Amino acid sequence: MKNIGNIIKTLQNIMRKDPGVSGDAQRIEQLGWLISLKILDDKDKELKLINDSYKSPIPSYLQWRKWAGDDEGMTGEELKKFVDDTLIPKLKNIDVSVGNKRALIIREIFEGTNNYMKNGTIIRQVLNELNKIDFNSSEDRHVFGDIYETILRDLQSAGNYGEFYTPRALTEFITEMVNPRLGEKVLDPACGTGGFLTSAIENIKKQDVKGVDDLKELEKTIHGMELKPLPFMLCVTNLILHDIEVPNVDYTDSLNREYTSIGQKDRVDVILANPPFGASVADKVETNFPVNFRTSESADLFLMLMVRYLKDGGRAGIVLPDGSLTGDGVKQRIRQHFLENCNLHTVVRLPNSVFQPYASVATNLLFFEKGKPTKEIWYWEHKLPEGVKAYSKTKPIQKKEFDSLKKWWKNREENEQVWKVSIDTIIENSYSLDIKNPHTPEVEHPYTSAELLSMLHDSFKKSDKLIEILKAELKND
Hints:
The protein is an alpha/beta fold. The protein folds into 3 domains: 4-153, N6 adenine-specific DNA methyltransferase, N-terminal domain (Ferritin), CATH 1.20.1260.30; 156-428, Vaccinia Virus protein VP39 (Rossmann fold, 3-Layer(aba) Sandwich); 446-477. 44% of the residues lie in helices and 12% in strands. The longest helix is centred in the first third of the chain and has 28 residues, at 23-50. The radius of gyration is 25 Å and the shape is globular. The N and C termini lie far apart (52 Å).
């Protein structure tokens, strides 16, 4: 069994030697388009074996096997010149006139792509390392998810890239509970690298896909939208690897569409999503929404959008931050609209650290169906496993932690981590969904404010004393 983590580490260490690549973000972008091309080529070979008349939309001289596949092939200045002057410009302008959808996807992938590497010999070393992975082998395909998780986990130092990584335990649990089936239209309007979409594909394949016709049906019903070039690229290749020949992923800001233009033909059966939160939307995007619901907070607009996209009887499982559960003004109006049009039957309250190291915001999983108003909401408080103080990069949330919740799901009773709230209580609370666990006793502080101030004062005195001792020791050294 190959250790994909080691291959990725080796790749990053090789790239660190290149003077043109600065920082994790650029390294990941570089890896992104190289892995994408390798996957496209591996899948082209497989499609050709299955269907002799299949023709790749990538001209043969630009195919991975031609310029990258031979470990003794082009290198140095010749390779760098080919990548910069031929490969990327040609792929950005690939011929889409014959209506080949796969060609269009390739053009969209490379529209936002740059080669940052300046040393052709180092590029060759990277290619040779990638040639160790065969994306057609079931073993390598299986660990493909680990490649992305490894890449994305390494990205916390790259600023806002973390926002499109949802722990796999969450995507799989949410998908299992919502349970999309073959023939149902599934949408993720902020799909990132495709975690929810691939979970949906696997969920449907496991239960319903028996042959090629079912796979074609599945391909038509999985739909994502993504605004940023890197996650878009990773999502498309992720779907191709999950046997979706032509992924239906739009390179677009899903909020940048007139809200009222979303009609019956756009409606879907299932929405699975972790929309970006804590971010302001692009300039003027909120004007696409009715005046009453305009806000610059992305998570709130996404909630409106998702309610709009769901058909009556459609169901959803989404991630939302605490900030969207409470607040007055437009936030309250959005929640009221949501609860009057959807039956929010379950809220899973997650510990703060689930999205660390990317964000320490408290988040919730919301499960709802459109078409009937909410009458009552079940709350489940997800507790950290015994002995764990917080989730972290090395100790992420695990799927097995949801086993007791799954057992409870079909046979609901209150217990110390479960409580039920009627819509009347929610309305009295100004439609706030931030309802604390009534079974958790309030912690009383044993000290008065004056005592706490005095303790703080003593603590500062001790710190000052330690600093003086340290200064004296440094002087003596």
